Amino acid sequence: MPTPYGSHGGMAFGAEELRVLRRALALALHPSPVSAEDVQDCLRLAESVDEALHEGARLRAFLLADLARYRAALPGTAGGYLVLLEEVLAAGYRPNPDDLAALRALRGNPVAAALLDRCRVLAEQDVRTRLAGRSVAAVPSVPTSRTRLLALPGGRSADRPEKTAEPKPPSQPPSRTPRTDRPIPTPGEVFPPRRKSGPPPANPPQQLAAG
Fold this sequence. Notes:
Shape: flat
Largest sheet: none
Helix content: 55-70%
Structural class: mainly alpha
Low-confidence stretches: 141-160, 207-211
């Protein structure tokens, strides 16, 4: 079974586990028929890694709780606190403000002074990382799908401002000016003279019949 931490906080494997790991990597890079024994070895190694990860998390939690107890009992526990702090730093622990304050109080100790310089560097790195993450998150980005839509004909271009529709001039009533290409009618054409009725006949037909 792999141990949770090596000398520098990493996971350590035994000789048999390294053999299985090399075999698994070779199969991943160059697929080939796998024997039942190889499959069982890989499964056992995966279970061992999972168990070692859980054990490492429990060990880390125990060390951090122990470190907090030693820090709370300073300065009488300076020796144990400095040893534990070095151990958890090697395992990836990032110092918090309480650790920096405790090391400042112990700066007369050469080990504490060296750890203070180391922890200051780590704290500054964490601050720069957080600021960089915030600046990246603050920059708005256009989703890929939106970028493709903008590239379609008729889409809004990011390089050109959007054109606003110009207001139409108010509609004007139609002009009543007479057309110059048509001649103006005369009064006689507009109002033709009445036709005069003729004189009545001298001898109506009915009177001639009666005579």
